[in-house]
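no rush on this but wanted to send it before i forget. theres a chain ive been looking at and ive put its sequence and its fold in token form underneath. please have a look and point out which stretches look like helix strand or loop to you. thanks a lot i owe you, the record is right below:
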Amino acid sequence: MASAEFQYEADPDPMDFAEGAHAKRVGRISGEVRARPDGLRLKLVRDQAENGKGVAQGNTNTAAYKRKGHPVYTGDLTNILNLDVEGRTVVVEGAVRMVELCRATLAAGLMPPVVPGETFTVAGLISGGGIDASSSRHGLFFTSLVSMEVVLANGDVVLADGANELKDLFEMIPHSYGTVGLVVAARLRLIPAGDCVVSTYRHYRELELYGKAMRDALEGAHARGAPHEFVEGLVYGPNSYVLVTTEWGHTRDPATKLLPNFETWGAKAHGNEWYFQHAESTAKKKQTQKQKGGGGVASGDGGSGVLGVVDRMPTLDFVFRHQRGFMWVVDMYVNNGCLTKSRCGRRKVDDAVADKVARGQEGKGLLTQSEMERCRVFQVRVTRLS
């Protein structure tokens, strides 16, 4: 469902999808789809070397079900076709990862409204879901869709938007997980973004106060006409809850320079606290700073009287803040406080994980089934739908 801020409409310039090299890539994919033998399902392949080896692309399921599928190579759909700064839209191929997309758009002072993670692809997020801390304001990833180019099961290539004769297809693709068609390109809306963000962290020991503060950060902020750009809650145990509210910032803005003790935390620096650790330790600083009368302490929220601690970080670091450490999974997997609670230990862990990711092995045997069950939980965030 589209959020109130984004309404689906016709694509302003379908010719943006007709660029020569892109059209050839889509034509090849169309031919591969048409060549599928009867009785075989399609399997998407991003690395030709992995063809036939059952590599699971873009999900955490077992790869066994892909071993006998008919391969369709999508690994070269990695190009940004058009960035319209004035119109605040971007036309991008389906296999472009969020990190490449955000780097390109942020250089123009723009960002996708919802950025779920560094390695997710545009097509995967459209066909799947895509949610993040900005979803309370902007909805799911696909609510920024203007149009998409889709290869159907018979190999036909169509352009669907929210106003043409393929509106039904346009509305069916999100959450279809590739069962309706393959998204090979899309036009997305963008929003203005700062080169940094300013976050306020508040710590609660009582669930009731935390719930009240979360409600105020969501419903109260909207009612006051000043919704937060990002709202995120983290639960560490029955007596430890953290609420993080975040706004866009600009390092050259004189107002930001007036903030006392304005700290910058490096989300990407190996050895630094992982973000979930950083959020809790930063939020707990409020008592010490309050006693000292120190800076960096924000005002109370929602009438709870809990002070917050402020810091900032570069925008790209923030939107991918959970990538290093994979949320909390690496910490739980290592399960050794001597490593995960010290800078030296985290650096060793970060280096080892980065090496595995660089070699393309992050999904190959990193976690056993029992370890996945221990380290992963379903995440639910409040999403504004109207």
